[in-house]
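One-letter codes give the sequence; the integers encode the fold. A sample entry reads:
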Amino acid sequence: MKQYFTQKSPFIVPTNDGKLIEEHFGKASNGDNNVSIAHMVAPPHWSEPFQTPEFDEYTYIIKGRKQFIINDEKIILESGQSIKIMKGARVQYSNPFDEPCEYIAVCLPAFTIEAANREE
């Protein structure tokens, strides 16, 4: 029995805001509740509502810039930088810039829309 799994067909999460979400591992792609790993591209001038997740989220910026508002503090990361946002923090993710932002996101435990607790 193999003790590994290669992901060749990540789950493309349907969105209506122009953001690309390719989940390689997680609840949507392979049913894993422990971790989710996704490749994402946020288009220019994209944003999400504030949320208070029930998971830790790690983000690594590949290209472009991404803005985070965490408990009323604004943080901007650039290519090669990363951040860990602890569960329970109120956060808003956005790309208010003129170029796309490509990044990797890891959530522990795995991301679910219910556990994100978005403010709609």
